Amino acid sequence: MIARPKDFCMAVVLLALAGFLYDDITSMNLGAVHALGPAFFPKVLLYCIGGLSFVLLLQSLNLRKSKAPAGAAASCPADDDDEPVGKGAIIMQGAFTLLLLAYLFALPRVGYIWATMTFLFAGMLMLGPRKVKPCIIYIVVSAAVTFGLRFVFSTLLHLFLP
């Protein structure tokens, strides 16, 4: 029995998308004969998406046996879909979407490092607590993630970022 239909549908769609993209990547002739060719990173991402989608699929199914006593009625945990979404959550989603669009707009203009550090810091500031200590942590994490990703892509994968 499907306990959470929305999660089930999303898991099936993501599994199908990951399978389609994996098939598409493996059918391309990329001319690379070594393991870290251009298809390596997309394959790793697709393995992660497929694995996590499979976990979501299993979680969306009601596979657990009820441990309620024989005379008691089994209670179902509250489903997140039953609660209405507040205005604050909708505003936060819209603001984060605008932040993402601003990042995509700024990326070719100011470059990867400044655009990504600003995007990560603003996103963490928007979603997390706004005190002095977390803000210092946000700055350090934004810089570390930005330069870490740049190192991985440019040095290890030989893919240059804008």
Please give a structural write-up.
The protein has 162 residues and is mainly alpha-helical. Helix 1 packs antiparallel against helix 2 (40-60), helix 3 (87-110) packs antiparallel against helix 4 (112-127) and helix 4 runs antiparallel to helix 5 (132-156). The protein has helices at 5-27, 40-60, 87-110, 112-127, 132-156.
Report a brief summary of the structure.
With 162 residues, the protein is mostly helical. It has helices spanning 5-27, 40-60, 87-110, 112-127, 132-156.
Notable features of this structure?
162 residues; mainly alpha; 67% helix
Q: Give the structural class.
A: mainly alpha
Query: How many distinct helices?
Result: 5
> Quick check: average pLDDT?
78
Shape: flat
Termini gap: 47 Å
